[in-house]
């Protein structure tokens, strides 16, 4: 039974060098597909070879367009006329192509056609790029754009690695040949992504990532074509070159106008300064440089190292719990603009947890009202690993004694976080050599409590609460801390020593009817250095503290011994 008797052709989708793609369905109007009609010329062996190659790529992977059915038929002039009636009314390339074969059908009575029925996809990656580079207002308004960019790159890499694992070189990897999934809404870009159009692909059995093979010269699209293709001897590394350029284009949102110059300068002039440093993917610049090297020996030979960074996207609380449990070093877990409920733990080293700012909210499970008895062990997020990064999240808890973040490991970085807790610590640092930076804390009992050694609190702000920053342990540093409406701004607790406080100030009056203290240094403390601090009231005890450029608006309370005062206004 012929394809045309079992299927309906509904509308035109796209055209290629020697074929047309139409949207098709079964006769009941369901089971939608994209069907490519490739017109054959028996005297053109090159064309027949390309058609055969595309027909042979019948692989099943989430990130590769699935070829559902392959058949071969002969179309009469009447059938070709019906296809032409579905084309746009402009006489473009597709119109010229089909008219050519219509004339051939009139001359010979029929034309041979290869039919490739594929899964129906949505818009191409090129459409997405145009949407966000031509209209910057769109991506500036999309808070989760970075996560989308990273997912695009990650899924392209997964699909391309799958092809290479099956000894297939795509040879024309570019945004036009990467499709989003079929959307319910035509204006949406839906994952997963799919790599398609295998007309130029080659299957090289038993090839390795480095084995170069004699193949056709100058195959693919010039902008994305690896230099060695012009020499006619290349390998899977040619696809990696193309992928590196696409990755750069997606992560940096390079527009059509800049793209030719950027690509030329990067490849031919080895200009790496064009690659932005803070792209939304770990080590992005390193990988782009390695992938797009003109020198094959320096270029990355496969995508394993890139993919093994493990970038994941947790869309709900259950996924986040699972990903944190199963994480491996250097993994990056992205969170979306939604709420994640529960208590989570980073128990592995070298992980990154990255949210989308205040739209990514961490909170207790809805309806829970437990009162935690030990506030030092109960947090929405516990960081027990070391060398981890947590960035771009909002924490909200109104549970009694529950804190926001507990940092138990060492050398972690916590930044760009908003926290509101009922009466637990917004963030407590128990480990050593951690950095907490750019935190906004509101309506919390205590802000930042630091108990370890060598930790740094930098560029933080707190409003409405009891105590802003509390220092215990040894050799911790506070820089650029501002606060308003607190009972105590910064305190150095008894038994601790050698802390440094720099560039902190009170920007509103303290609570407590004048009884509050902006800076309090308890007894049994020693060797702390206070520089560029301004507060309504300062209370000092302990021994051997030094003060430089410090202002207390009210008479300070000075106890202890061995202090050094240099430009202390109020003493």
From TrEMBL:
Residues 7-324 form the Protein kinase domain. Signal peptide: none annotated. It comes from the Eukaryota. Keywords: ATP-binding, Kinase, Nucleotide-binding, Transferase. Pfam families: Pkinase. GO terms for cellular component: cytoplasm; nucleus. InterPro entries: CC_SR_Kinase, Kinase-like_dom_sf, Pectin_lyas_fold, Pectin_lyase_fold/virulence, Prot_kinase_dom, Ser/Thr_kinase_AS. One of its GO terms (molecular function) is ATP binding. The keyword Kinase applies. Belongs to the protein kinase superfamily. Ser/Thr protein kinase family. GCN2 subfamily. This is Serine/threonine-protein kinase 33. The lineage of its organism: Eukaryota, Metazoa, Ecdysozoa, Arthropoda, Hexapoda.
